[in-house]
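Page 42, continued from yesterday. The earlier attempt failed because a stray header line got pasted into the input along with the sequence. Redoing it now with the clean sequence only.
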Amino acid sequence: MSDECVFCEIVRGDAPASVVYEDEMTMAFIGPRQFHAGHTLVIPRGHFRDVRELDPETGAAVMATVSRITRAVGLAFPNQGLSLWHSIGEAAFQEVPHLHIHVHPRKLDDDFLRIYPHAPALPDKDTRDRYAAQVRAHLD
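This time it went through. Structure tokens are written below.
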């Protein structure tokens, strides 16, 4: 755990949170900002900056909790869909350097989390195959 991380403070009980669920490896609590009611954050209890640092056991526990919380949020709050997201780094607007998955109810035409600011490129199959090879070269 980190002494300077607000989510680690929540895990330790040193900072307030509206806890929805907790188990040995994960915790879920209502996010401090509520664009739509029900926005919930799921975190590992251990301090991981982002998903790239997860070990398989913690990753599986986080995803099991995300699945469980997503079902509950979808039933508890009005929505026409749900968004899940995890941001990594400044360019992706990560605000807390502790892995967290947002579970957010969505409503039609809410314009929340617009994915692309303009129409994205549609590369041909050869280009996509080249991109796939680049990623495969870095798998561990």
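Notes: The helical segments are 6-12, 56-76, 125-136.
Reminder to self: strip header lines before submitting.
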